[in-house]
Structure formats: C-alpha cells, structure tokens
Amino acid sequence: MRDTDQALQGMYRCPVCGHRDSAVIDARGTTHRISCSYCDTQLDVTVRNPGTVLLSAQLAENPMQS
Ligand SMILES: [Zn+2]
C-alpha cells in the first residue's frame, strides 16, 4: 500500500487573497474544507482530476464557526 493512496498533496490558489499554497487532503473524497494559510478564509477545494495536483478552490458555503 502506498501512502499516496489516501493522502494527496495538491496546490490551491486562494480566491480571496490570491495566495498559493499546498494542502494535504484525503484523496478518497471529492470536496475538502481547508483554511487559507495566509488569510485564514475557509475554502472548499475540489480535486479536478485523479492524479493531478491542481485543486479548484472556492469560498466555503457554510463556514464553520470556531
Ligand atoms: Zn487567502
């Protein structure tokens, strides 16, 4: 079993501040909630295609209150 079977490191671009960073997500799912490492905005990222490291990021529809 390879580590990459479940964890995927991808690149996202924050739609709010334009910051680019990497995020490690669960490759088994399709949409993942992350927070921008720069502006801390909650984002929903989607894996565009299996095997690619490019993630599509958009504002989270229902941000969780911390
Ligand atoms: Zn940001």
Characterization of this structure:
By secondary structure, the chain is mostly beta strands. It has one domain. The chain is built from no helices and five strands. The strands form two sheets. Strands 3-4-5 form a three-stranded antiparallel beta sheet, with no helix packed on it. The protein starts with 6 loop residues before the first strand and ends in a 7-residue tail after the last strand. The structure holds zinc ion.
Determine the mean pLDDT. 86
Side by side, the strands of the main sheet go 3-4-5
Radius of gyration: 12 Å
Total domains: 1
Strand proportion:
over 45%
Helix content: under 10%
How many strand units?
Answer: 5
Q: What series of H and E elements makes up the topology? A: EEEEE
Large-scale geometry: globular
Biggest β-sheet, characterized?
3 strands, antiparallel
Query: What small molecules does the structure contain?
Result: zinc ion
Helix/strand/pairing category: mainly beta
Count of runs of 4 or more consecutive helical residues = 0
Q: Note poorly predicted spans.
A: none
Terminal-residue CA separation: 36 Å
SSE layout and pairing:
Blueprint: E1 7-13, E2 20-26, E3 31-35, E4 42-47, E5 55-59
Antiparallel strand pairs: 1-2, 3-4, 4-5
